Amino acid sequence: MEADKTVSTQIEVSDLTTAFQTQVVPMPICKYEILNGGPTGEPVQFATIGQQVYHKWTCDSETVDTFCAVVHSCTVDDGNGDTVQILDENGCALDKFLLNNLEYPTDLMAGQEAHVYKYADRSQLFYQCQISITVKEPHEECARPTCSEPQGFGAVKQANQTAQFFRVLKKRSVEAMENVLDVRAELTTLEVLEGDLPASLRTSAEALVASSEIGYDTFGQGFCVSYFAVSIASVFAGFTIFVAIFMTYMIVSRVPRSKNSDC
């Protein structure tokens, strides 16, 4: 005989337990360097007019593929209030003769070659830039500024080609101001007519300071004096000559005139 029976059993399934895992990722540490010749050159503190250097911005992070960096809002000044903007708030160059549009070899590195220049009456150049740090989206490339070819002498500012791009950066930076970092670099430009600047001066400020203290030319061609020292010496020499002439006049005027006597 055949029989149909229904059998059943019971099993209980508990809900999956969830746990939140958080990790504090430190912000990258950024720096601005001016290197001699190219991206692998030595940092320079002293250079000659026309010398080729490499402006390099790098950020070091403890994690990989986590952050993106964009350099923008760069200015150069002479330390006396005369400031020129070389990168706008979008990260685009304004004057190709001062600094061209930047290249981004990696997510946290930017750079560009340039030639050394100086103000007419100042030898020091002070560079200051801002670096926006944003979180990199998974499996996506870092957003980069799209800039047109800059004009010479800052004649034409870049259009709003990267406005939408930079609004994203600003939106992310508003919530946490630490996402925008300030970096600085300094360069002293020397007017050398003959020969190249010795390598010791490019990397060591002490060599030039020592030579300037004793007034001896590092190139072994004589003594060097600054324009300020020449001005002070000229004023002192003029004052000395004036005092000598005045004292001579006073002495001569005090000598009694000889009277003719009858013989």
From TrEMBL:
ZP domain sequence ranges: 1-154
Listed PROSITE patterns: ZP_2
Signal peptide: none
Residue intervals passing through the bilayer: 227-252
InterPro entries on file: CUT_C, Cuticlin, ZP_dom
Keyword Signal on entry: yes
Pfam families tied to this protein: CUT_C (PF25301)
Coiled coil: none
Keywords: Membrane, Signal, Transmembrane, Transmembrane helix
Protein name as annotated: ZP domain-containing protein
Organism of this sequence: Caenorhabditis briggsae
